[in-house]
Structures are given as C-alpha cells and as structure tokens.
C-alpha cells in the first residue's frame, strides 16, 4: 500500500494528545519559536494536552495541521498547518516547524513537497504563498531551493526581541511545482 503522506524520510500524521509534552519541549526554545511564529506565554502540560484534544488541528480537506514523523526514529520531529485558504482564487499558505534537534535533515523539504502535491494535485489549488521572516536565512534558502519565488517584502511588519522585522513574501504556482515534482499518478487496482 502506498500513501501520498509518506516520503523517504517522513510520514505526515495526526498528533496524539500524549505527544503534547514534545510540543511543550519545542516551545521552550525561544529561537525556535521566533523563527516559526512568536514567543508565547508559558503553558502547562495540561494546557498543551487540552490544545490537542480541543480539536485544534482537526483536519478538514483544506485547512488542517499535522505532525511530521521521522521514519527512521518513528518520532515526532515537527508539525505544519495550512492557513490562508482562499478557494475563490485557489491560493493557500502554510507554516511549518521542525524541532531544533531535527533540523537540516531534509524533513521540512520533503514534508513541503508532500503537502504541495496534496494541495495542488488533490485539492485544485493553483498557488501557494508563504511568509518568511527576513532574518531566517535557513527558511529563505529552503524555500528558494524548493522553487518558491520571492514576490515582495513587508517592511517592519513583525515585532519581537525588541526590534521590528521584515517579512519576505514567496510563492509557487502549480505549474512551477509540476515542472519540478510529480503531482502523483492514478493506478487501477
């Protein structure tokens, strides 16, 4: 059996409530949090568990969150979530976070390719937009390597660590994706 959600290094899957402590561990790293979102106030173990049990990230076809599991370790190494769903124009966005100890192993790039294959090839979206903090050169390089094109910059649009930061706007169309990656195939059983 083949799954669109399994690559060579990762499996995309739901996050179980008992994995809430791992999310809590990721949130303890301020650099990690600033690179992926922003710093949040401290939350208890019960708070993280409630977050997962409350249906946040409960999947629907277009807007959903999921965990990223390393196939080698069978361990949760990160997560992503789609957002900015605009069905009228066929555009969506996502955020992705890989734990600091698991970065630069190809998990993010493989997960993004799997996600784009689903959104472009199964859900009929025609474009993906992402926003990357300008100082996050690793994420900028990753998205450029995958084929995203820089489309602009919002100056001084985020504030944290006592400073204002620019956000780089990047995008990829279905045609750009299809030129570099497979949209999948249909086989009879």
UniProtKB/TrEMBL annotation:
Superkingdom in the source lineage: Bacteria
InterPro entries: Acyl_CoA_acyltransferase (IPR016181), GNAT_dom (IPR000182)
Span of domain N-acetyltransferase: 10-175
Any Pfam family the entry gives: Acetyltransf_3
Protein name per the record: RimJ/RimL family protein N-acetyltransferase
């Amino acid at each position: 059996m083949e799954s669109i959600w399994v690559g060579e290094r990762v499996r995309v899957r739901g996050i179980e409530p008992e994995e809430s402590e791992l999310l809590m561990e990721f949130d303890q790293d301020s650099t990690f949090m600033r690179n992926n979102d922003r710093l949040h106030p401290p939350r208890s173990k019960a708070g993280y568990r409630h977050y997962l049990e409350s249906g946040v990230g409960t999947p629907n076809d277009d807007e959903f969150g999921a965990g990223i599991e390393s196939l080698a370790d069978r361990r949760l190494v990160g997560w992503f979530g789609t957002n900015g769903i605009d069905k009228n124009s066929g555009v969506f966005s996502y955020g992705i976070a890989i734990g600091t100890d698991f970065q630069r192993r190809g998990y993010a790039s493989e997960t993004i390719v799997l996600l784009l294959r689903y959104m472009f090839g199964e859900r009929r979206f025609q474009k993906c937009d992402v926003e990357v903090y300008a100082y996050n050169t690793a994420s900028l390089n990753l998205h450029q390597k995958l084929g995203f094109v820089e489309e602009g910059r919002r100056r001084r649009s985020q504030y944290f660590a006592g400073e204002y930061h620019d956000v780089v706007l990047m995008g990829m169309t279905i045609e750009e994706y299809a030129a570099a990656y497979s949209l999948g195939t249909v086989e009879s059983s």
